[in-house]
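JOB MANIFEST
job_type = single_chain_structure
chain_count = 1
residues = 155
[input]
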Amino acid sequence: MVESVTSAVIEKALDTVLRKVSEGRKLSTEDLVVLMLGLFREIRNDIANTNKRIDTLYEMVSKSYEALNSRINEVNDSLIKKIDEINKRIDVMNDTLGKRIEETNKRIDSLNDAMNNRIETLNTTLNNRIDEVNRRIDALYDLVGKNYEALNNEQ
């Protein structure tokens, strides 16, 4: 209220001073003070307008910052979920591969045991046949030895 009354008084005094200037009359100290008050009022208005623009820009930047921060949080949450899903898939694949490796190792062990048994059986069979052939050779050797002795005795 006081400001509007003061503004009206300064406006009226400023009009009077400007008329004096347009008429080319000499200005008094009081007139110069009125001009300075008018100038200060204009500067205050410019500052107020600038402050309003700064406040508007600040609000816009704040809203943009909040929107950007929200978007960053959404993207971060989305990435965390995707990473968790990928980790779960990796764990499942790791478990599956581990089971397959165990199965393969069991098959290898089973085949190894079967091969060892087969080799052992073949070894035993071959040893038995070798022993049998050796016995036959020994028998033939004895027979050849007896035949040789018989031939030598006949002569």
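[summary]
The mean pLDDT is 92.
Residues 2-127 form one domain.
exit_status = 0
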